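User: Please fill in residues for this 276-position structure.
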């Protein structure tokens, strides 16, 4: 539940930032009366695209056999990991220029007397965030049933509500708070979520190979350590830290290696960006 709330909160907050920038720009445009319906239409279209994507993913998953479902979930987890890394990298690189870039695109469309172009800019921005939510949470979406559907919906609603409150706080305190630090901190947490998804894919793949009696070096599947006496990842706190921060009380060595290689690659990627 914590993973769902965090992902929805962060992505909805980014979507609200985009909508807020465009709303402010349209409001100060002489043709704002004609522009506003296209803003709302773009929001609606973006949300609709995200819902359709969720239905497609869920529909494909239910048509697959057990092994193929596992492979499909592994692929979605790896894809989500890659998208998170790309998103955090993009935000670190373009967060400062996002407002000016959006306003420039809007101005170009309106100069061509094309509010429809503005609608698609908004729809793409919303659909991008919504699609990322769907992909990031694909594992939970594909496992929804009558027992956990209500809890998932509640977590989504909490995430949306918290993002709205965060956006309101952003408007009130944007002159006093360094929001670059906000994106840096949440970006780091998102990277932890990325490695959590990647490790899940690696572990599911390892378990599937073992179920089919495919030999794996004992070293890779043996436990590296046992910290279950401190925090058991089957408990409430352990489950939360496991889903959001990739914690394992008894990790296999293959998971430890995956964790280490991932962070070495992230350090190389982001340190290289800073050095340029």
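Assistant: Residues filled in for all 276 positions:
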């Amino acid at each position: 539940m914590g993973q769902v709330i965090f992902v929805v909160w962060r992505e909805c907050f980014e979507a609200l930032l985009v909508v807020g920038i465009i709303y402010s720009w349209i409001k100060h445009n002489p043709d704002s009366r004609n522009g506003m319906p296209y803003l709302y239409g773009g929001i609606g279209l973006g949300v609709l695209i995200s819902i359709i994507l969720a239905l497609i993913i869920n529909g494909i998953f239910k048509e697959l056999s057990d092994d193929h479902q596992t492979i499909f979930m592994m692929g979605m987890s790896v894809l989500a990991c890659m998208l998170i890394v790309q998103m955090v990298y993009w935000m670190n690189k373009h967060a400062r220029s996002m407002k000016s870039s959006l306003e420039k695109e809007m101005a170009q469309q309106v100069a061509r007397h094309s509010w429809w172009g503005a609608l698609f800019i908004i729809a793409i921005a919303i659909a991008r965030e919504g699609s990322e939510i769907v992909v990031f949470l694909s594992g939970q979406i594909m496992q929804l049933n009558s027992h956990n559907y209500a809890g998932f919906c509640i977590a989504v609603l909490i995430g949306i509500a918290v993002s709205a409150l965060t956006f309101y706080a952003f408007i009130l305190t944007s002159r006093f708070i360094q929001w670059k630090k906000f994106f840096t901190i949440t970006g780091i947490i998102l990277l932890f979520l990325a490695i959590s998804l990647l490790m899940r894919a690696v572990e599911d793949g390892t378990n599937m190979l073992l179920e089919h009696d495919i030999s794996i070096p004992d070293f890779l599947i043996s436990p590296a350590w046992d910290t279950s006496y401190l925090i058991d990842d089957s408990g409430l706190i352990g489950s939360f830290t496991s889903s959001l921060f990739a914690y394992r009380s008894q990790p296999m060595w293959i998971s430890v290696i995956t964790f280490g290689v991932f962070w070495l690659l992230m350090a190389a990627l982001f340190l290289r960006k800073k050095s340029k």
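For context: Residues 2-275 form one domain.
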